[in-house]
From TrEMBL:
<dbReference type="InterPro" id="IPR024708">
    <property type="entry name" value="Catalase_AS"/>
</dbReference>
<feature type="region of interest" description="Disordered">
    <location>
        <begin position="1"/>
        <end position="28"/>
    </location>
</feature>
<comment type="function">
    <text>Decomposes hydrogen peroxide into water and oxygen; serves to protect cells from the toxic effects of hydrogen peroxide.</text>
</comment>
<dbReference type="InterPro" id="IPR018028">
    <property type="entry name" value="Catalase"/>
</dbReference>
<dbReference type="InterPro" id="IPR020835">
    <property type="entry name" value="Catalase_sf"/>
</dbReference>
<dbReference type="Pfam" id="PF18011">
    <property type="entry name" value="Catalase_C"/>
</dbReference>
<keyword id="KW-0479">Metal-binding</keyword>
<dbReference type="InterPro" id="IPR024712">
    <property type="entry name" value="Catalase_clade2"/>
</dbReference>
<keyword id="KW-0408">Iron</keyword>
<feature type="domain" description="Catalase core">
    <location>
        <begin position="29"/>
        <end position="417"/>
    </location>
</feature>
<comment type="similarity">
    <text>Belongs to the catalase family. HPII subfamily.</text>
</comment>
<protein>
    <recommendedName>
        <fullName>Catalase</fullName>
        <ecNumber>1.11.1.6</ecNumber>
    </recommendedName>
</protein>
<keyword id="KW-0349">Heme</keyword>
<dbReference type="InterPro" id="IPR010582">
    <property type="entry name" value="Catalase_immune_responsive"/>
</dbReference>
<dbReference type="InterPro" id="IPR002226">
    <property type="entry name" value="Catalase_haem_BS"/>
</dbReference>
<keyword id="KW-0560">Oxidoreductase</keyword>
<dbReference type="InterPro" id="IPR043156">
    <property type="entry name" value="Catalase_clade2_helical"/>
</dbReference>
Length: 708
């Protein structure tokens, strides 16, 4: 019996994978291209008989399936990717000869965002550092900028990387907790390695729970070197600045998201790209003179646990990145992409930062296990767009059919080819290792004294935050340490906090019920740098999500007006109603009050909130605009939960054409920051004004989500 072929639910998509070597066709085949008649039944000796070993199709199908998984990344296993383009302003050419930084040059790229600690299937909205890795396919070869969403790192020397990663990973006995830093081994490490305090502070801040990949800054972390066409060297730090500003979730949202939508960030990125709200970042540089000490204002530029405030060295923008295409195959692109900080192009070189030096070894090494051999750069997503003639030969998964018989240099049998720069017809700009003077020194295992300051930047960061941000930091430390079973570890970390800020330490100690220790280290006071706060400035609403609650009784014209205004303002509207189906204007309901949670939107408009009760009469009382007290027939009580969450998360709520008592009727404060009444035409502009600062932070005082 053959299985009936169902009607296709959508037109067959052409094979968009840019791989002309592998045409897919429409016929089902074996891996060798033989067309198959039946893939639903094994070959058996009669309908009730045993399966025959000779069934080569069965064996091929199962064998391939058995080997579908590759080892996940040891860190940054969970990620989401997107394609885009970098357009250079030309401003970088002054200090860097790289061709992709010349004015107007457009370079295709692929970005992968990730969490660090969790496994591939872990949740997105966990508290963690985020990876921000960019592969530029330049005409001079691939340049990888493998950074994070925080400008400092936990450790100063790569030899400590396995240690810090072992500490944050789940405990080895039971493999819990997953994708969490709130456990004993992590805080044991951090409290014993005070060099990790500055990065821990960033992770405990709102930066540890970003609202969206689209709203994260990116940092190259290390100091790199750029070389101009005339050979002049400068030291630089890379920065990605998001057009939408830097925004975060609040802790309640993060916890809800991890249950209600573990793919929260991945979905947000792909939805925005699908909707045409293409995420954008500017690439900027902080430029430093390449002086002998390689330091600036007392900050050692080779210490990756330190950053240089923008207030001291402004960022100079050199180009813009736009992400405009989702991957067409997660495995082929996002999983198989292989980054490496040593993928450099002429004009960009590394420094002696000991963390960076170790990374230069680690990334190729890990790909050999993860991607099954040394030929991973031949995978389509890793393939340079520049010609490759590398004399590397054979190995597992070799897909090139190399020509010639003399893959060695020099040779006379292949006409001397491939040519080094300056030989034969090769006049291309080569990669030149910068001829840095290496100081005469004694071999040994030690750090410079400048690496010993472990607290001043953590203090500077904390004291530069706004009151509500500092409160979030206090809550984060209290939560994380509250999850540690060992009181010794909690007390040791409190000791570190005492060196950072006495009030922070006291607030956390109060929550933990432990005594407040005094500082035991003298710490330099640095000028605050307000640029690390996320609460200053105002931002466009492009691609932000505007929830619109309507009912099946809401007039078509009201929905049409609100949706059109939301689209016009740049929002992505999300229609919510009690049940699914279509609203009066024909718009499909995006989420019902069963499938929606407050985490899915940045602001909420309430146009109407009645349930269509079977047999209920729609009279003037049940039309849009009429308020039904909770409990009345036709009222959906789930709206109360949605509103309370939205309120606690400091989001703007606009009641559209509702009576004055609307918010009180639903159990919220009647008036107050971010609770707005508006007519239909004024509703969306009201939300735009309130979202410019991301949240209505003034709704709560420093003590947290307790109404004033
Ligand atoms: Fe790393 C992956 C960023 C230090 C070893 N790292 C990885 C990724 C990012 C970073 C974004 C994911 C890339 C992707 O999406 O595929 N890593 C950083 C930053 C660091 C850093 C910003 C410090 C400033 N890393 C670091 C050190 C070592 C590694 C010191 C080892 C000595 N990192 C790795 C790795 C990974 C990796 C094990 C795992 C998967 C991979 O490389 O491809 O080699």
């Amino acid at each position: 019996m053959t299985t009936p072929v169902p009607e296709p639910t959508q037109a067959r998509k052409p094979n968009t994978n840019a791989d002309p070597g592998h045409p897919q066709g429409t016929a089902l085949t074996t891996s060798q291209g033989a067309v198959l008649r039946d893939t639903d039944h094994s070959l058996k000796a009669g309908p009730r008989g045993p399966v025959l070993l000779q069934d080569h199709h069965l064996r091929e199908k199962i064998t391939h399936f058995d080997h579908e998984r590759i080892p996940e990344r040891v860190v940054h296993a969970r990620g989401a990717g997107a394609h885009g383009t970098f357009t250079s302003y030309g401003t970088g050419s002054r200090i860097c000869s790289a061709a992709f930084l010349a004015e107007g040059v457009k370079t295709p790229l692929f970005v992968r965002f990730s969490t660090v600690a969790g496994s591939r299937g872990s949740a997105d909205a966990v508290r963690d550092t985020r990876g921000f890795a960019t592969k530029f396919y330049t005409e001079e070869g691939v340049f990888d900028l493998v950074g994070n969403n925080m400008p400092v790192f936990f450790i100063q020397d790569a030899i400590k990387f396995p240690d810090v990663v072992h500490s944050v990973k789940p405990h080895p006995d039971l493999e819990i907790p997953q994708a969490q830093s709130a456990h004993d081994t992590f805080w044991d490490f951090v409290s014993l390695h005070t060099q990790a305090q500055a990065h821990a502070m960033w992770v405990m801040s709102d930066r540890g729970i970003p609202r969206s990949f689209r709203m994260m800054e990116g940092f190259g972390v290390h100091t790199f070197r750029m070389i101009a066409a005339d050979g002049q060297s400068s030291l630089v730090k890379f920065h990605w600045k998001p057009k939408l500003g830097v925004h975060s979730l609040v802790w309640e949202e993060a916890m809800l998201a991890n249950g209600a939508d573990p793919d929260f960030h991945r979905r947000d990125l792909s939805d925005a790209i699908k909707a045409g709200a293409f995420p954008e970042w500017e690439l900027g540089l902080q430029v430093f003179e390449d002086n002998e000490g390689q330091s600036f204002d007392g900050i050692d530029l080779l210490d990756p646990t330190k950053f240089v405030p923008e207030e001291l060295v402004p960022i100079q923008m050199v180009g813009k990145m736009v992400l405009d295409r989702n991957p067409s195959n997660y495995f082929a692109e996002t999983e198989q992409v292989a980054f490496h900080p040593g993928h450099l192009v002429p004009g960009i070189d590394v420094t002696n930062d000991p963390l960076l030096q170790g990374r230069l070894f680690s990334y190729i090494d890990t790909q050999i296990t993860r991607l099954g051999g040394p030929n991973f750069s031949q995978l389509p997503i890793n393939l340079p767009h520049a010609p490759v003639n590398d004399m590397l030969r054979d190995g597992m998964h070799q897909t090139y059919i190399h020509e010639g018989i003399a893959p060695y240099h020099p040779n006379s049998l292949d006409g001397g080819c491939p040519y080094q720069a300056g030989e034969g017809d090769n006049s291309k700009m080569p990669f030149i290792d910068f001829p840095e003077l290496v100081a005469e020194s004694v071999k040994g295992r030690s750090n410079p004294v400048s690496f010993d300051d472990h607290f001043s930047q953590a203090r500077m960061f904390y004291r530069s935050l706004q009151a509500h941000e500092r409160r979030h930091v206090q809550q984060a430390y209290s939560f994380e340490l509250g999850k540690c079973a060992s009181e010794v570890i909690r007390a040791r970390q409190l000791q570190a906090l005492a060196n950072i800020d006495v009030q922070l330490c006291a607030a956390v100690a109060r929550e933990l019920g432990l005594p407040v220790p005094g500082a035991d280290t003298e710490v330099v006071d640095r000028e605050p740098c307000p640029s690390v706060s996320q609460a200053l400035g105002s931002w466009p609403v492009d691609g932000r999500i505007l929830g619109i609650v309507a009912s099946h009784h809401t007039e078509a014209s009201v929905i049409e007006t609100l949706v059109a205004a939301a689209n016009h303002a740049g929002f992505q509207p999300l229609l919510l109603s009690s049940v699914g189906g279509s609203l009066a204007d024909g718009s499909p309901v995006d989420r019902t009050l069963l499938t929606a949670r407050s985490i899915e939107f940045d602001a909420l408009l309430i146009a109407d909130f009645l349930v269509p009760v079977a047999g209920a009469k729609v009279d003037s009382d049940t039309k849009a605009g009429a308020v039904r007290p909770p409990g009345a027939i036709g009222f959906d009580p789930r709206l109360v939960l949605l509103l309370q969450e939205t309120y606690r998360q400091s989001k703007a709520i606009v009641a559209v054409d509702q009576p004055e008592s609307f918010f009180q009727d639903l159990g919220l404060e009647g008036t107050g920051p971010g609770l707005v009444h508006a007519s239909v035409p004024d509703a969306v502009p009201g939300a735009v004004a309130l979202l410019a600062t991301h949240r209505v932070w003034e709704r709560f005082d420093e003590s947290g989500p307790v109404p004033k």
